[in-house]
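Our platform keeps sequence and structure together, in a single record for each protein. Such a record has a labelled line for the sequence and another for the backbone structure tokens. The tokens are whole numbers drawn from a learned vocabulary of local backbone shapes. The remainder of this section carries one protein's record, kept here as part of the documentation:
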Amino acid sequence: MAALTRLLLDIVALADTFVIVSAGGVLLTHAERPTDMTKAPKLAALAVMIHADQVLLVRRKNEPDAGLWGFPGGHVDFGETALAAAARELREETSVVGRPLHYLTNVDVIIKDECGCVQFHFLLAAVLCEYLSGEPMADDDVSEAAWIPINGVLIRQIACSKHVDDVIRMATMSQK
């Protein structure tokens, strides 16, 4: 058994050059490696704001999800909390000022090309925000910003990014 363990350790040590060992003990060539382990998901925060039976949404200019409606949001800066990032992105993208209340959920967005290779991977921290002031105006990387009736989103009257309706349901339940 010790000899087998040593052999496996030697194989693992050579993994970058020749083969890797999968969790099941199967040898895979370098070309069969499932993913590039040097990459990591990008962390982003979403500002989820509900006010007077409406939800604040933006229409994205850029991929992924260009042209679809979703929550204001974007990357979390190094040293910044996701709560602070949600408030900052809310203001930058919509000119609306809000106070982050708490985390609602996390959403993984993994988008693959036609060959199955990952093109985008985001880990989105959805943050419930309280409306303080301002009227929605599109800015930064969005083409529109508007208060949309919650029922209109839930019955899919507008084209939204995946998970928007689920996060809205969580937010409305959280406010009760």
In short: Residues 7-24, 28-33 have pLDDT under 50 and may be disordered. The chain has two domains: 2-32, 42-174. The helical segments are 2-13, 82-94, 150-154, 164-174. The longest helix spans residues 82-94.
